[in-house]
Automatic annotation (TrEMBL):
<dbReference type="GO" id="GO:0006508">
    <property type="term" value="P:proteolysis"/>
</dbReference>
<dbReference type="InterPro" id="IPR055210">
    <property type="entry name" value="CtpA/B_N"/>
</dbReference>
<dbReference type="InterPro" id="IPR004447">
    <property type="entry name" value="Peptidase_S41A"/>
</dbReference>
<dbReference type="GO" id="GO:0007165">
    <property type="term" value="P:signal transduction"/>
</dbReference>
<dbReference type="Pfam" id="PF22694">
    <property type="entry name" value="CtpB_N-like"/>
</dbReference>
<dbReference type="GO" id="GO:0004175">
    <property type="term" value="F:endopeptidase activity"/>
</dbReference>
<keyword id="KW-0378">Hydrolase</keyword>
<dbReference type="InterPro" id="IPR005151">
    <property type="entry name" value="Tail-specific_protease"/>
</dbReference>
<feature type="region of interest" description="Disordered">
    <location>
        <begin position="399"/>
        <end position="447"/>
    </location>
</feature>
<dbReference type="InterPro" id="IPR001478">
    <property type="entry name" value="PDZ"/>
</dbReference>
<feature type="compositionally biased region" description="Basic and acidic residues">
    <location>
        <begin position="409"/>
        <end position="447"/>
    </location>
</feature>
<dbReference type="Pfam" id="PF03572">
    <property type="entry name" value="Peptidase_S41"/>
</dbReference>
<feature type="domain" description="PDZ">
    <location>
        <begin position="88"/>
        <end position="170"/>
    </location>
</feature>
<dbReference type="GO" id="GO:0030288">
    <property type="term" value="C:outer membrane-bounded periplasmic space"/>
</dbReference>
<dbReference type="Pfam" id="PF13180">
    <property type="entry name" value="PDZ_2"/>
</dbReference>
<keyword id="KW-0720">Serine protease</keyword>
<comment type="similarity">
    <text>Belongs to the peptidase S41A family.</text>
</comment>
């Protein structure tokens, strides 16, 4: 592995603990600090002293300092962050794909937690939970009114502790309690299957430590089931990112050796780097390259990449690399636009600082920060259209977002009009009964409209292109 990669340690790009990030974890000591503004630091010390001595009641000194650090870092951009003990632990859990809980993939429906799928072999799987089960209570707490993150936190806990879930199973019209013993869960970030003779689908939901091994294993299974693969769909929809080395590896699986996958640029010397499609840029251990097991035809099999507004960071790196090298046709909607790099540096044994240190660029040199990857073919979520996608938050919607660094941002009046129309339609739909509201089919199902269009693209058949979606330009920030 190169010297710079050794310094960087490991890099993650994605949604971890609720924040979209691109991160390298560094444990090396930094160089000498820049000259400090003494007058301002004296003011900070004076304010600290006044709060400590004059505030109406005693304050926790450590909390004051932690809050001051957190406020200073949060004022920079949406992705720089101070990690206290709890959030640092959650951050590290997010990159390993390991956590202690019950083992279910969930979403929200009508204010309740919906089971999308129990993770195979998990406590929830063994307890008999099924897809579409609704969780109405977690222990004694009603789920209605909780955010998804709050519900997740209540279901997680220490190993070998119990949590009672109250389940409503719609197809049986009954509610019942289930007591589950929490265990360490290893999430599965790769799914895939042969869709029909000659064509397969592989989905990455996040880029984690195990993703490359699981990705190679799943492709081996696909080729074993269908040796004469004519086309493959790589599904990155709603993939918030994860480890950069995993993104480089997935890109390298399809690209010629040694071509550029992504580059980064910032003030620090180690922030100026180019990652290429070669083992030394993604291997975690010498001699361990899972991609070597893959058939040579993976480099030439016709490929479609599916993306949407939820595709961010690492998934944008993969989509951008495959698009720039003309290795794949990118289909769907414009991606999130998370193109900045954050470095995580430990501040002690259990706290850390995540700081934006660079932007990343596709092989052709384009920054996708606050813009995203524009698909080659724009396709709606459903045959009825893509009305609500404009309401989804993207990088350009975040307060204090970093600009692309490649020219001025422009205001998109058409998008604002589309958002207003979508809001009105969303209000109309909210007044209807749940059964009458439109639902996006499960990814990978036979009702997955975008997947059907991806197959049409691979087969040379007509693709139903969106009549409403247009490229979203980077929006101008107010000074």
């Amino acid at each position: 592995m190169s010297h710079k990669l050794k310094i960087a340690g490991w890099v993650t790009v994605g949604a971890l603990a609720g924040a979209l990030t691109t991160v390298s974890l560094q444990t090396v000591a930094r160089g000498a600090l820049a000259p400090l503004p003494l007058e301002e630091l004296q003011q900070l010390a004076a304010v600290f002293g006044m709060v400590k001595s004059d505030y109406v009641e005693p304050v926790d000194e450590k909390k004051l300092i932690q809050d001051a650090i957190a406020g200073m870092v949060a004022s920079l951009d949406p992705h720089s962050q101070y990690f206290d003990k709890k959030s640092f632990k959650e951050f590290k859990e997010g990159t390993t794909g390991r956590f202690v809980g019950v083992g279910i993939e969930i979403s929200q429906e009508d204010g309740l937690v919906k089971v999308v799928s129990p993770i195979e072999g998990s406590p929830a799987f063994r307890a008999g939970l099924k897809p579409n089960d609704l969780i109405t209570k977690i222990d004694d707490t009603a789920v209605k009114g909780l955010s998804l993150n709050e519900a997740v936190k209540k279901m997680r806990g220490e190993p070998n502790t119990k949590v009672m879930l109250t389940i409503y199973r719609k197809d049986e019209s009954r509610s019942f309690p289930v007591t589950i013993n929490r265990e360490e869960i290893r999430t599965q970030s790769v799914k895939g299957k042969v869709l029909e003779p000659g064509y397969a689908w592989i989905r990455l939901s996040q880029f984690q430590e195990r993703t490359v091994d699981d990705f190679a294993r799943k492709l081996e299974e696909i080729y074993k089931a269908e040796p004469n693969l004519k086309g493959l769909v790589l599904d990155l929809r709603n993939d918030p990112g994860g480890l950069l080395d995993a993104a480089v590896a997935v890109s390298a699986a399809f690209l010629p050796e040694n071509v550029t996958v992504v580059s980064t640029n910032g003030q620090l010397a180690e922030s100026k780097f180019t990652y290429k499609a070669a083992p030394e840029y993604y291997q975690r251990r010498a001699g361990n390259d899972p991609l070597r097991r893959l058939p040579a035809s993976i480099k030439t099999v016709p490929l479609v990449v599916l993306v949407n507004e939820g595709s961010a960071s690492a998934s944008e790196i993969v989509a951008g690399a495959l698009q720039d090298h003309r290795r794949a046709t990118v289909i769907g909607s414009q991606t999130f636009g998370k193109g900045s790099v954050q470095t995580v540096r430990p501040l002690g044994p259990d706290t850390g600082l995540k700081l934006t240190t660079a932007r990343y660029y596709t092989p052709s040199g384009k920054s996708i920060q606050a813009k995203g990857i524009v698909p080659d073919v724009m396709v709606d979520e459903s045959e009825e259209g893509n009305v609500f996608s404009v309401l989804r938050t993207r990088e350009a919607d975040l307060e204090k977002h970093l600009g692309s660094g490649q020219g001025a941002e422009v205001k998109d009046a058409a998008r604002e009009k589309a958002r207003d129309e979508a809001r009105k339609k969303a209000e109309e739909q909210a007044s209807k009964a749940p059964s009458e509201r439109p639902k996006v089919p499960e990814f990978g199902s036979d009702k997955d409209f975008q997947l059907v269009q991806a197959l049409n693209q691979l087969k040379g058949r007509p693709v139903l292109i969106s009549k409403t979606m247009v490229e979203r330009k980077e929006e101008k920030k107010e000074n």
